[in-house]
């Protein structure tokens, strides 16, 4: 595994260099120079202490090839520094200037149909283009040379959302790089043919020069899934390599300052294998945009739970989120009253020590003109800007109370996430194309919250041996090594929950034989004490067929049921399929959910899909998952809290101070009793009639401080 860079947090321009960072992307090149002084005035009013600068400014820094001008940027940085506002300076390579594309159209990406992707948007360049790399790294070096000693520049921001527009490139440069990547990975062409299963459909290749990219092959053609999975890995690696080249070019000239790039983690996207990327940054950053609807807060917390794990429990950076609506979704809902502050503080509750927005001033033109900002089109006399100012004051209060640098307390349960399984579930060669690993992670996260139990979301590749329980929802791809880690976890006393589509393939997209789940050469089946022979797939496409099947414990499955035909003698059946719908598919009485002792631990098998509400019901019923009759002691997870409230704890590294965050998950007021500590923040909260009691309105956040 790659050695991880040491954690290094960017300093503020405060007397101590500490405090919760607050600000956003600043794009003064969109505005006349006279607006800058007005911006500085409003930033001070809003308690802004940091901005990300020059993210899309390449054409302003280098307006013509080889002609670099820094006067305007020097002026902006000088004014910001004088106002006590630190700068996270970008490499400015996210969008290249039009003159570069005009001179070198060969740097433009190519889509899977062979069409050249035109210039004019973000990231219209090939990660594998040596020409583009030469221009980009020259810009990086010029920036580093000019600003290496500037005290206002306290961090470097590489690129921007790598892979947003060029995650998949099918150019000749990409083809040559993919062939070299395959040779480096497999060593011999025989190993590649074995891994890709090229005996099927006459796909055998005689040397690495015959390896192809998974381009479009016709209307109903299906890509070799093993080849596609390697192409996903390759695309991730090429962009990571480009990021490292930019970082190293600057660091060679300007060492000592921390480097980051903004990940894109939400449960509707997780573009890269960020478990790898996190090794290569000095502090972890994320761009998170809320999911409209009732899942808003839960989805945010689930995404943040993964971010906190990627940061190894150290504080992390919200590089972008929105004050209100965005403009790039089919439905662009605005935030309700209180959500601007609530969402920001929810990120803090989940471990963030920096809250930033895209962007400072809302654009008057361009593709994102209707994307909300800290200073909206309506100006400072607006609800949005007043909310921004309120938030800035709250973050200063939390900083003064000593929150910055504290770390999120770990949960007892880890839901395991795998970028490779997320990629694999997108394959068009699976029993159902409706699988979604990341959404199943989210459903389990929410189901646990619904019974008052918070989980961590941890990359499969990381160390999760210290948890009591691990859950693997649709972790479809498991190597033999991962299967052994899971079995060893149960053997040593842990509880393992295996989902219905977990462990069906290995890391090469090969099916484990002998029955399902086949991962680990049957080791998962041994641990679970079950064997499934076939999948039963439901869906509205089958007209006139049952749309769901009931379970004997009242739960419902609607997508996928495993036909479990063999049980070990000591396997306990928790629920079976039942009813006329089950009879119709010869599943009546067939085990759907089972539990099996393994070593000193327990392996639970969820042999069918369940929605978030059924997951919550199941967790409450199973002692192995923390559910218990009233007269039995707790033998699994931590004591449940009020399920209407998201409760997290952040502690100082020496363990002497704790901050308890309470966020209302509902649309109705929630009464809390006997809340310990001294209040630091009671946003949209009122004290109750009893000591230690509070009423939390919708979108409320309560923060209590205790010295232990």
Textual characterization of the structure:
Helices cover 29% and strands 20% of the residues. It contains 18 helices and 28 strands. The strands form five sheets. It has a nine-stranded parallel β-sheet, covered by helices on one side. β27 (678-687) and β28 (694-707) form a beta hairpin. α10 packs across α14. It is globular. The two termini are 38 Å apart.
Describe the protein's topology.
Elements: E1 21-26, H1 34-45, E2 50-53, H2 58-61, H3 71-82, E3 86-90, H4 98-103, H5 130-147, E4 153-157, H6 172-186, H7 189-196, H8 225-253, E5 259-260, E6 262-263, E7 265-266, E8 269-270, H9 274-277, E9 285-287, H10 296-310, E10 316-320, H11 339-349, E11 352-357, H12 383-400, E12 407-408, E13 413-417, H13 419-424, H14 437-449, E14 456-459, E15 469-472, H15 480-491, E16 495-498, H16 523-528, E17 530-537, E18 549-551, E19 556-557, E20 560-567, E21 572-578, H17 580-584, E22 591-598, E23 601-606, H18 612-621, E24 645-651, E25 657-664, E26 670-672, E27 678-687, E28 694-707
Parallel strand pairs: 1-2, 1-11, 2-3, 3-4, 4-5, 6-9, 9-10, 10-11, 13-14, 13-15, 15-16, 16-23
Antiparallel strand pairs: 7-8, 12-24, 17-20, 18-19, 18-21, 21-22, 22-23, 24-25, 25-28, 26-28, 27-28
Helix pairs in contact: 5-8, 6-8, 10-14, 11-12, 14-18
